[in-house]
Amino acid sequence: MDLAVPEEARRGLEALLAELGGTDLIVISAGTGELNADLAWPPDRDTIAVNVMGFAAVAQRAMAHLLAQGHGHLVGVSSVAKLRGSGDGAAYSASKAFVSTYLDGLRDKAKRSRLPITVTEICPGFVDTAMMKADKPFWVATPEQAAACIDRAIAHRARHAYVTPRWRLVGLLLRMLPGP
Ligand SMILES: NC(=O)c1ccc[n+]([C@@H]2O[C@H](COP(=O)([O-])OP(=O)(O)OC[C@H]3O[C@@H](n4cnc5c(N)ncnc54)[C@H](OP(=O)(O)O)[C@@H]3O)[C@@H](O)[C@H]2O)c1
């Protein structure tokens, strides 16, 4: 499914859920983002289309399914970038703040339902994939290491998980330091 076409993505998810006859776990990992220091519009537009509109369209449909089913686990992939607006990629960091806050909202919804539904926010630092666009990346995880961390977070039904866990230190630091 193409998250840039939200109605189609929702229909794709519905078809998949119908074919499976329900599911215990839905992981939304798709995302996009470009370095955009020149403030070109198309990269920002495309990032917002996929990471904001597309993410919400699919996450909302997934949660509706879990609520109707009465149980399950929704996992969304955000980023440490959510913590700080960046002049190199303002749309990307803002879109990941949206992902995280949207997941918080869905978690609150699940809690109020009193149903056994877990919502997990995954916050990777740098992972060695095509998405890693930084000039000077550090603490780079392999995709296998990242996947193992995400697997553990899912098994523990964590509400929030940094990938790898030491990125929590960067998270704490960014929360303490003044913003731009
Ligand atoms: N790598 C990092 O350093 C890093 C750090 C923080 C957060 N993240 C987040 O981790 C998630 C996974 O990224 P990754 O590191 O695994 O990078 P990746 O290997 O480039 O994977 C990106 C994934 O998103 C999918 N995608 C992109 N646009 C889409 C669209 N319009 N509709 C449907 N799927 C789309 C891609 O599908 P196709 O292959 O079919 O295009 C691909 O499966 C993303 O949300 C990313 O923002 C990554």
Q: Please state the average pLDDT score.
A: 97
Number of strands: 4
Q: What is the total number of structural domains?
A: 1
Q: Helix content range of the residues, please?
A: 40-55%
Structural class category = alpha/beta
Span from first to last CA?
37 Å
Instruction: Give the overall shape.
Output: globular
Major sheet size, sense and barrel closure: 4 strands, parallel
How many helices?
Answer: 5
Q: Compounds present?
A: NADP nicotinamide-adenine-dinucleotide phosphate
The H/E string reads HEHEHEHEH
Low-confidence runs of at least 5 consecutive residues: none
| CATH class membership | Alpha Beta
Considering the protein shown, what is the CATH homologous superfamily?
NAD(P)-binding Rossmann-like Domain
Strand order of the largest sheet: 1-2-3-4
Rg calculated over all Cα atoms: 16 Å
What would a concise description of this structure say?
The chain has 180 residues and is α/β, with parallel strands linked by helices. Helices cover 51% and strands 12% of the residues.
Key traits:
180 residues, alpha/beta, 4-stranded parallel sheet, 51% helix
How would you describe this protein?
The chain has 180 residues and is α/β, with parallel strands linked by helices. The chain has one domain: Rossmann fold. 51% of the residues lie in helices and 12% in strands. The protein has five helices and four strands. A four-stranded parallel sheet has the order 1-2-3-4, sandwiched between helices. The model has no long low-confidence stretch (mean pLDDT 97).
